[in-house]
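Recall the central idea of this unit: under ordinary conditions, the amino acid sequence of a chain determines the structure it adopts. In this exercise we apply that idea directly, starting from the sequence alone.
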Amino acid sequence: MSVRIDETDRKILVELQRDASQSLDEIASRVGSSKTPVWNRIRKLKGAGVIGQQTVILDPEALGFEACFFVLIRTSEHEAEWQQQFLKALQDRPEVQEAHRLAGDIDYILKVRVKNARAYDAFYQALISEVRVHNVTALLSMEEIKSTTVLPL
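Accordingly, the structure predicted from this sequence is:
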């Protein structure tokens, strides 16, 4: 479904990205509209798939997940069966926060959040026991400089 997004829609989306827990009254006030038109626009944007799942962002370190690894994977396997098995292995692991298939020398990059290096090793051992990979390189993030889900509307 295609949807046209005008300036008011963009303002609503900016507000939702900033704080999705705002009331309709607060959003309407900030975008210069009233509650019912804002609700209708949000409903339209959800229906069109522009607005997806709404959730909260947790602080991983506050919950003991102090280690963030970026895992670079090279594989010599590219058959559909292997890809399905790999995808299932990633989907079954809550430690994997992001997974991307890449162009270039590296086939996949994963963002893996765990409590410590020992927990990463357990993740790694489990992954390679399920799917065959040619090479795995893990990079430990020393400091998160910027992290956002906000799109530049």
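Strands lie at 67-74, 96-101, 108-114, 135-140.
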